[in-house]
Amino acid sequence: MSPNTAFVVIYVLVAIIFPFLAFTVAYFLRPKRSNSEKTTTYESGMTTRGETWVRFRAQYFIYALLFVLFDVETVFLYPWAAAYNQMGLFALVEGFLFVGILAFGLAYAWRKGDLRWT
Fold first, then answer.
1. pLDDT in tens, 67-115
2. What DSSP line would sit under 19-63, residue for residue?
3. Cα dihedral 103/118/52/49 (nearest 10)
4. Confidence at 57, pLDDT banded by 50, 70, 90
5. Residue 115: which of 75, 77, 54, 70 has the closest Cα?
6. Domain residue ranges of the chain, discontinuous segments joined by +
7. At 88, is the secondary structure helix, strand, or coil?
8. How far apart are CA 61 and CA 67, in angstroms?
9. CA distances (Å), 11 to each of 3, 23, 38, in order?
10. What class does CATH assign to 3-112?
């Protein structure tokens, strides 16, 4: 077995064993006694009245997902811009293709009305 393969095998074993080990240690170290104070509301400190489950509109999540999508894809443009001089015309074509896909996605979301905040 080559040293690189051994390193990968050891890394995979540690990655599999570590979560089980962490949960086992946490199980034995956690406090076991429960009382009524631990089961009360902790976010605002006030007891709730009426129905406590609030339905959020799916549009908020779609708006957040679109923001994350375009934000992450924009991060990919920074290395492209930094290495643009070394790649030449190929980088220009790839950059326009990438920005075109982004523009198509933005136009699609805009046309569907997902960007309208209501």
1. 887 788 878 888 887 877 788 888 888 888 988 988 898 888 889 887 7
2. HHHHHHHHHHHS-----GGGGS--SSSS---S----PPPHHHHHH
3. 160
4. confident
5. 70
6. 3-112
7. coil
8. 10
9. 12, 19, 39
10. mainly alpha
Tokens of 46: 């006030």
pLDDT band for 44, please (50, 70, 90 cuts). low
Two tokens, residue 77: 């443009």
Are 42 and 48 in contact, with CB atoms under 8 Å apart?
no
Q: Position of tokens 């523009």?
A: 103
**Structure-block tokens of residue 4:** 């690189």
